[in-house]
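Researcher: Here's the sequence for the chain we discussed earlier.
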Amino acid sequence: MDATFTAEQEEIRRTLRELLLKRCGPEEVRTAVQSEGGYDPVLWETLAQQLGLPGLALPEAYGGVGCSVTELVLASEELGRSLAPSPLLATAVLSAPLLVALGSERQRAALLPRIASGELTAALAVPGASLTTALGLTGDNRGDWAGGGRAGGVQARQADGGWRLYGQADQVLDGHSAGLLVVAAHTGGFARSRTLLFLVQDSLVRDSPAQGSLGRDGSGSAGVTRVRLTSLDETRSQARVQLRDVEAELLGEEGEPSDVAGALAAVGDSAAAVLAAEAVGAADRVLERTVEYVKQREQFGRAIGSFQAVKHRLADLYVQVQAARSAAYYAAWAAAVGEERVGGLALAQALEALRITSSEAVQLHGGIGFTWEHEAHLYFKRAAGDELLFGPVHRLREHAADEARLFGGGEVAV
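Model: Thanks. This is the structure I predict for it:
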C-alpha cells in the first residue's frame, strides 16, 4: 500500500476545502437543510459542474472523471468537515456504482452522463431499516431483507410485458428529491424467491413534491408517494417512499442472471470507506474547534486548555481521530485495488471516533455546545444519526468477525 497521495489528489482536497470554507459555514448549513430539497442547489451545481464530484469515480466513457474510490473518499472527508448537505452520498456512492455494475449498456449510456454532470440525482430505496444489511455491512445480504415473500418490504411482479412495484421503503437517503430511484424489490414468490433492483425513472417522479403523492395516470391508479422525514441529523435528509402499482424498469438485461447481492456488497464496502472518511472529517473539525475554544476560555484566571486533565482528554481524542483516518484511508485503498473488504471495520472505528469526539466537544464547551447557536451540536447529531443509520458500531464489528470466522470454533487466524 502506498500511503502518500498524488498531487492531483491533494489538489482535490485543497480546492474543495477552500470552496466549503467560503460557501458552507454553520449558518449556510442551517439554511440549506431547511430548504425543500434539504441542500443548497447552487452549491451542488458548483460541486458537480466545476469540480465534477458526482462523476469522480465514474468511467470516462460515461462522462465521469475515471478516478477511484480514493478520490471520492478525500472529497467526502472535506464534505464531512463542514457537514455540507448534498445528494453526493445517495447519488454517486450508493446508486451510480450499481448502474455501472448491473445496468445494461442502454441504461448506463442514458443515465450515467446525467449523473456525472449533476443534472440527475439518484437514491437507493431499500425496504424498512435494512440499508446496512442490504449493503452487507451488518448481516448477510442474501437473506430476505427485501420482503421474503411475506407482507412488508417491496414486491415486484411482471405485468403487460413490464414490471410493477408495490410496497414501502423507509429511511431513503435524499429520497424526497432524487430524480431516479433504484429500488430493491422481492420477486418470484416463495418458490423462486430472489431480490432484484429496479429503476423508477425521473419522468415518473420529477414532478413529485417533497411531500405528497403522484398519480401514474388518469385512471386513478396509485403511484409514488414521497415524504421527507424529520430526522435527528437534518444534514442527512431521509424520506419514506411508498410505491403503489408503479411502473418500473429492471436494472440490467431481462432474462440475464445478475449477482445483485454481490454488487450491493461491493457498493457497501466502498460506501463504508466513504462514510468513514466523512466521519473522520467531521471528528477532525469538531476537535479543531474544541482546541480553539479551550485556548480562549478562562477559569480560575487561566485558559482551561492549560490544565493537564484537559490536555490529556484532547490528546486521547487526537490519537483516536488519527487512527480512524488511517483505517478509512486503508479501506479506500483496499476497495480501489479489490483487496479484502475492510470497509465495515473502518466505518465502525470512524463512527466511534466521531461519537466520542463530538460528545467531548459538548462537555469541554461547558454544555453550550448543545445549543442551537453553536455548531458543536450539529456534529453530535451527525454522530448519533450516522450510528443509527449505518451502525451500530458493535454490529459492524460483529459481522466483520463472523465473516472472518474469528469465533467459529475453528483455528484462530494469527
